[in-house]
UniProtKB/TrEMBL annotation:
Entry-linked PANTHER family: MALATE DEHYDROGENASE
Provenance organism: Arundo donax (Giant reed)
Lactate/malate dehydrogenase N-terminal domain mapped to chain residues: 1-57
Biological process (GO), any one: malate metabolic process
Membrane-spanning intervals of the chain: none
UniProt record similarity statement: Belongs to the LDH/MDH superfamily. MDH type 2 family.
Protein name (Swiss-Prot/TrEMBL): Malate dehydrogenase
Catalysed reaction equations from the record: (S)-malate + NAD(+) = oxaloacetate + NADH + H(+)
EC number, as in UniProt: 1.1.1.37
Length: 252
């Protein structure tokens, strides 16, 4: 199936869901979009729900965060719960950017615990980006159980106060973000919550040239996909030109 057709078919579903939420949902509803491509589908949904706060729509990137934490824990020889401050930047696709620069293990910067820079910049990043495909190839199906756990984790992070100094990842609306990421898209960024279902973006993060180069690539992908679904967001005719296949395995 052509990318434009896939985006259109999936997008129509989420446009309808957005209109339904706009018509009958609580004005304080919180929405987590899981269906892929989830960042773009979240954008479509929120654009079709103009009476609801755009910031209350989330694209699920917690699965990617959980995978990143597991890889760091395995490499460092520690339990998963010793890893904190992990961010997934960008799109839930192979352009996602798992951030080891700001991550911590037992409260220490990852780079002081794992000193293998090549592994962090190459193997770690690629493993997290491609983990879904590896599981499908091995098991013959997508990781439904892991996805379910990540949905629960994402909800828990919104209704439980974030631990002091920590944060979690979620694909959220970028308008007025503090990082310089393009506005009016849904982009995974680091968030904190007071436990009331709301969140704020984390400002005390370091973005190196290494991270920024990759963040901009994911941003470009999302901007291109936004043009593909312009007819579903009320922004004119669709214009789809995405030369590189970055869909995660199972998205078809």
């Amino acid at each position: 199936m052509e990318r434009a057709a896939l985006l259109d078919i999936n997008g129509q579903i989420f446009a309808e869901q957005g209109r339904a939420l706009n018509a009958v949902a609580s004005r304080d509803v919180k929405v987590i979009i899981v269906g892929n491509p989830c960042n773009t589908n979240a954008l479509i949904s929120l654009k079709n729900a103009p009476d609801l706060p755009a910031k209350y729509f989330h694209a699920l990137t917690r699965l990617d965060e959980n995978r990143a934490k597991c890889q760091l824990a395995l490499k460092a020889g520690v339990f998963y719960d010793k890893v904190s401050n992990v961010t997934i930047w960008g799109n839930h696709s192979t352009t996602q950017v798992p951030d080891f620069l700001n991550a911590k293990i037992n409260g220490r910067p990852v780079r002081k615990v794992i000193k293998d820079t090549k592994w962090l910049e190459e193997d770690f990043t690629k493993t997290v980006q491609m983990r879904g495909g590896v599981l499908i190839e091995k098991c013959g199906r997508s990781s439904a159980a892991s996805t379910t756990v990540s949905i629960v984790d994402a909800i828990r992070s919104l209704i439980t106060p974030t631990s002091e100094g920590d944060w979690f990842s979620s694909g959220v609306f970028t308008t007025k973000n503090p990082y310089g990421i393009a506005e009016d898209i849904v982009f995974s960024m680091p968030c904190r919550s007071k436990g009331n279902g709301d969140y704020e973006l984390v400002t005390d993060v370091t973005i190196s040239d290494f991270l920024w180069e990759r963040i901009k690539k994911s941003e470009a992908e999302l901007l291109a996909k936004k043009k593909c679904v312009a007819h579903l967001t009320g922004e004119g005719n669709a214009l789809c030109d995405i030369p590189e296949d970055t869909m995660l395995p199972g998205e078809m």
